[in-house]
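Good morning C.,

I know you're traveling, so I'll keep this short. The sequence:
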Amino acid sequence: MAPSAAQRIVIENCSIATVDADDTEYASGYLVVADNRIESIGAGSAPQGLENVVRRIDGTGHLVTPGLVNTHHHFYQWITRGLATDHNLFNWLVALYPTWARIDEQMGRVAAQGSLAMMARGGVTTAMDHHYVYPRNAGDLSGAIIGAASEMGVRFTLARGSMDRSKKDGGLPPDFAVETLDGALSATAETVDRFHDASFGSMTQVAVAPCSPFSVSTELMKQGAELARAKGVRLHTHGSETVEEEQFCKELFGMGPTDYFESTGWLGQDVWMAHCVHMNDSDIAAFARTGTGVAHCPSSNARLAAGIARVPDMLKAGVPVGLGVDGTASNESGELHTELRNALLINRLGAHREAALNARQALRLGTYGGAQVLGRAAEIGSLEAGKLADFVLWKLDTLAHASIADPVTALVFGAAAPVTASFVNGKQIVEDNRLLTVDEDAIARATRDEAQRLARIAAQG
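The tokens, ready to paste straight into the viewer:
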């Protein structure tokens, strides 16, 4: 129990989906927050006699859930949306790398602000960014991204990426857009030392994240894993996204992506991979055996025609799975709450059809599953006493959801629900679908300016 001097917020008269181990739900219940922790939760009215209640919220017509957790993104792509819209992954990368290779610190900051704003106003309370484009003389890109997240008040993981395989080595990025092996490792270590906070409730964490098998050397993969484990941080990369990637790995390494990852130390409970679309039974078993997590990005996978990930099979095997927006150059909406619906619908196009996923499984992917994947399930991802006060009030009593009796079904199957309030660490960051911590209109203007500046610079070559 929190001390009586703690400041308390009480939410009452709301439906609650806790997403705890038993999927406990309350048709009408309460949530009590003491400072930055959930103090109590249950059915009916809040306990009487609570001290230092600084705010009471009537949640009538709302569903309260844990805050959404995004497990894969590329913020910089916010200023290159709507391009190469009819390309598969490799052709899309070839088309856009020359532009991405021109980003600088100011562009990175604005792109991070835009990406974070779209997620936060749509219910995301914990975000991550896999940033791997570090052109020479681009400035402090990592600092700019982390600064944007701190300003917005969102819990955040920077997956400090890297690339050292450029065109001259058989990769896709321009030569000037990659780092050397030693340079990438040194810069990654410095980022961890500078920003990573391992304490309970930390707002900023860092992961080691070489980009992908086809854009980094085997040495960077191996030494990156060693660095992460020496520093005690998590590991992230792209894996098994396309058929072409599988062919690339077999031609270059003589094995498929999962076997290659295992050979370089990249399977384990401290690892999560983005996409994992093309996984056979052996691959899924290897992920389950090692506790390796997956960031499922259904909209991006569809946008780039990558395929349908075997999420039901992964879950059945015990693989930790969360949801990811992915970069907004391959998911222009930039919102995670739409991924709840898309994960359910797209997976029903696969082998399991209507039995693939249900509404509650989709909500779990976007909350507790994401917390598992980021290694923070003891802190966030479900509404339980003692956990951090990261939660969302979804308004479900409007025309859009009026005839759907079950609130979780309304949230997942229905239209995007308005966010009346979103809290991170017990502090409100969204009210009535508007951010309280930053100026959305200013971010929109800056987005247009930086997108135009990047396009001009890229056109000049």
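Safe travels,
E.
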